[in-house]
Task: inverse folding
């Protein structure tokens, strides 16, 4: 969180390393119980109430002079000393005009003119505000802490068939981990047991069990739900998906939203101006007022100082953004900075890929249509062997349909042609496997109209002749329809761009109610479509896999990666990563952005309006130090309470 007075950065907990500067004593308070945090304020408040009772309600003739001063000083010390210490340290670090400095001179000044109760009250309520701030920050950090708790420091490794407990960071790639029922996995790996069921909530925000079979990936943070499982380690501790996610969330606050950056600069300029105005209020009336009384004008200047303190803005705004990032991570949405929350709030267009974004990306071969002159089994063997060199979902579908790959088949000059397919030579003959654009590119003649079939088609040519095609189907995700409906209700336009053939893309788009859909696109075609939207001065979010679509992601205002668990590159490339592959998280992310912006602007409006009213009253001599306390600390507390609301919202 950005610190409310811009002091120099100090050492922070490892789990909360942000750009910005935090209160030293706020961090000290984070590790204490609630009672201990409030104890100084409780002591101060009790002594203040007793002092006020002696002043106004209990008749006595001894509560005067130095006794009264010592009493109120004793009430002041528990809450005042930590703040005065912060003011001193801020000055040493070159930040003279800090909020601590404002509070220090306001309260010391109140004591200097004999307004002891007001001096204690200002510092007391300010300290209570600090405690609430520390509690709010702790609450906002709880999501990151809970993620850290999901990353065990120790794992059980099988060495010579015997289980040994070792530190997770010492485990090497290739070693075998034994995971008991109920245990959390410490490193990424591959399941070598036949089957396993895992709770993936640390990574996706969803506690629904995920069943894995032998050979599938399992990730650090997953909890084994049934029998003992054995996992072969595939990544070091520091390179696990969970480690990358934690690093991403911890560093999220380094990218500040424009509003946040403005408030930071505003406070640096505003605070010195306030101090010099207060000096002017104290001394300038001497030149213009006939019956000038130093004590009266000093009191007015002190009231002005307390009212003008910008802490409500400088505390609550970063806290609001941090809460938004926390709300996202709690729901399995990783937002790389508060600036992206602002962009999300203003998004006008969501442009999405089809395969793996709105559809499952799990293809199945439906039919095989080959010309009779070709041996179907022989051609399929060749196609299966060639596709085994690709990671595309289509390759997986062909492999599942054909069966084991014949590794004795050796290709020459294998080439992947972006947006088209694969080309290779075998036995001096050319094999082409891809879409019909690939066949057109190599001048292969075919008497067939691919646009008439509402399936994904894999065209095959061998030895310059058209062999035939496979039809492949993909199913729409369960929450895809809800996603489009929700985006429309948020006033966001939807466009689908895909390299798949136009008839398939249009069919899926019509099914879901997507407004614009374009198929048969190469990566550069997608870039041009996004450029068209941006040329109309419209903001664009692109949703895809974050790797193949890197140029479009870079061009869009915000890049959203689906299925972030599948690829390290998606986590690094995209601005926002949706961890559980569910498109319904797209409108949820936009809604989090909108709610965060709403709360931030509510706080800005509240702070300025209340402070302006009390400043006018103060200038007229109506507002006292008590009203000043409300204008500063009261507004700050209200703003903090408003900022933490986002952490309780359901999206």
Result:
């Amino acid at each position: 969180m950005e610190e409310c007075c811009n002091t120099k950065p100090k050492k922070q907990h490892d789990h909360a390393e942000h750009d910005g500067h935090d209160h030293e004593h706020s961090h000290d308070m984070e590790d204490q119980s609630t009672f201990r945090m409030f104890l100084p304020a409780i002591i101060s408040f009790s002594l203040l109430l007793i002092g006020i009772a002696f002043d106004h309600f209990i008749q006595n003739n001894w509560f005067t002079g130095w006794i009264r001063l010592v009493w109120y000083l004793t009430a002041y010390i528990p809450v005042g000393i930590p703040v005065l210490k912060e003011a001193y340290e801020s000055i040493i670090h070159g930040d003279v005009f800090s909020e601590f400095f404002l509070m220090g001179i306001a309260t010391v000044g109140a004591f200097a003119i004999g307004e002891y109760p007001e001096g204690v009250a200002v510092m007391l309520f300010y300290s209570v505000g600090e405690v609430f701030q520390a509690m709010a920050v702790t609450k906002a950090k709880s999501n990151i802490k809970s993620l850290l708790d999901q990353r065990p420091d120790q794992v059980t490794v099988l060495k010579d068939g015997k289980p040994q407990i070792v530190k997770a960071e010492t485990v090497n790639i290739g070693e075998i981990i034994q995971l008991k029922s109920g245990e959390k996995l410490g490193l990424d790996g591959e399941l070598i047991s036949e089957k396993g069921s895992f709770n993936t909530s640390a990574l996706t925000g969803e506690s629904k069990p995920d069943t894995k079979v032998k050979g599938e990936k399992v990730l650090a943070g997953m909890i084994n739900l049934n029998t003992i499982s054995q996992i072969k380690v595939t990544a070091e501790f520091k390179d696990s998906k969970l480690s990358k996610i934690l690093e991403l969330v911890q560093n999220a606050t380094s990218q500040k939203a424009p509003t946040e950056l403005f408030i930071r600069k505003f406070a640096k300029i505003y605070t010195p101006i306030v101090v010099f105005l207060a000096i002017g209020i104290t001394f300038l009336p001497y030149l213009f007022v006939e019956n000038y009384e130093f004590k009266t004008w000093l009191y007015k200047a002190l009231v002005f100082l307390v009212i003008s303190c910008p802490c409500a803005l400088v505390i609550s705004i970063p806290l609001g953004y941090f809460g938004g990032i926390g709300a996202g991570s709690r729901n399995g949405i990783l937002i790389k900075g508060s600036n992206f929350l602002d962009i999300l709030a203003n998004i006008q267009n969501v442009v999405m890929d089809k395969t793996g974004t709105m559809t499952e990306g799990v293809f199945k071969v439906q039919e095989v249509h080959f010309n009779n002159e070709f041996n179907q089994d022989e051609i399929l063997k060749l196609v299966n062997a060639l596709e085994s060199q690709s990671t595309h979902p289509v390759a997986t579908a062909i492999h599942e349909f054909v069966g084991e790959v014949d590794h004795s088949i050796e290709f020459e000059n294998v080439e992947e042609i972006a947006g088209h397919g694969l080309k290779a030579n075998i036995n001096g003959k050319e094999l082409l496997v891809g879409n019909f654009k690939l066949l057109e590119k190599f001048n292969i003649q075919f008497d067939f109209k691919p646009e008439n079939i509402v399936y994904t088609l894999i065209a095959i040519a061998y030895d310059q002749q058209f062999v035939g095609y496979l039809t492949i189907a993909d199913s729409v995700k369960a929450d895809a329809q809800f996603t489009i409906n929700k985006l429309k209700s948020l006033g966001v336009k939807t466009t689908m761009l895909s390299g798949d053939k136009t008839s398939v893309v249009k069919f899926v788009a019509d099914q879901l109610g997507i407004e614009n859909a374009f198929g048969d696109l190469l990566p550069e075609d997608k870039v041009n479509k996004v450029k068209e939207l941006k040329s109309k001065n419209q903001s664009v979010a692109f949703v895809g896999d974050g790797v193949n679509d890197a140029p479009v992601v870079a061009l869009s205002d915000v890049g959203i990666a689906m299925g972030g668990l599948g690829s390290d590159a998606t986590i690094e490339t995209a601005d926002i990563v949706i961890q559980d592959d569910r498109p319904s998280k797209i409108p949820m992310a936009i809604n989090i952005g909108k709610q965060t912006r709403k709360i931030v602007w509510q706080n800005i409006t509240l702070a300025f309006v209340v402070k302006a009213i009390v400043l006018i009253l103060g200038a007229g001599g109506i507002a006292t130090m008590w009203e000043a306390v409300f204008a500063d600390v009261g507004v700050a507390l209200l703003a903090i309470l408003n900022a933490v609301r986002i952490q309780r919202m359901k999206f």
